[in-house]
Design a protein that fits this description.
The protein is built from five helices and eight strands, in the order βαβαββββαβαβα. The chain is an alpha/beta fold. A six-stranded parallel beta sheet has the order 1-2-3-6-7-8, covered by helices on one side. A two-stranded antiparallel sheet has the order 4-5. Strand 6, helix 3 and strand 7 form a beta-alpha-beta unit. Helix 1 runs parallel beside helix 2.
Length: 197
């Protein structure tokens, strides 16, 4: 499903809500996210699937945050029960320390997590300015609450809200060139979304 968007390197927002369980693995995801260096919001959520299988890990999240340095909000499920690889609790992606200072919100739905110092330290380094975490109250609330409490910024934990409710359908407005006349061949326009303001 995400493969279709790879050709659009200038994307700033990807928001997909699907009724299908995605079999997205770290290796596939790592290859895709490098094509979206300008992403500011990435929302991949499931419709009416209470506990979809999770294949992404913190390695995939580190790849996303490494390639998308201006990413501020994301929603997706991943396994945060342990930190990846031999690097220990320091987030590396292909030998480079990953630290995304733009990230403010993570929508986790029912992402599995563990109450561990390693996972918390990993998140504290990976997203040092995180302010809010959205978790579905039925699963892993206590684990994410523990992680947030021990994160250096102590992000607020709140009940997960679907991206479509947080970011309603775009309002379309058109901006014109300086002469204000459309159709004269000298116009430019761009779509303005609510989050542009």
């Amino acid at each position: 499903m995400l493969e279709l968007y790879r050709a659009f390197r200038q994307l700033r927002v990807i928001a997909i809500q699907t009724g299908y369980s995605l079999m997205l693995a770290d290796s596939d995801f790592q290859d895709m996210v490098k094509d979206w260096p300008h992403l500011e919001m990435f929302h991949l959520s499931h419709d009416d699937i209470t506990s979809p299988p999770v294949h992404l890990t913190l390695r995939g999240v580190a790849a996303l945050l490494h390639h998308c340095l201006t990413l501020k909000h994301f929603t997706m499920m991943f396994d945060a029960t342990r930190v990846p690889g031999p690097e220990g609790f320091v987030p590396f992606f292909r030998g480079t320390l990953v630290q995304n200072t733009s990230m403010r919100y993570m929508g986790l739905y029912t992402s599995p997590a563990s109450e561990s110092v390693e996972v918390t330290t990993y998140f504290s380094i990976l997203v040092p300015y995180l302010t809010t975490v959205g978790v579905k109250s039925v699963a892993f609330w206590s684990e994410w609450s523990w992680i947030c409490t021990h994160h250096q910024r102590k992000p607020a934990i709140e009940d997960y809200v679907d991206a479509e409710k947080v970011y309603p359908a775009p309002e379309y407005e058109t901006e014109y060139d300086s002469d204000g006349q459309s159709g004269d061949g000298k116009d430019w326009s761009r779509t303005c979304y609510p989050w542009d303001r």
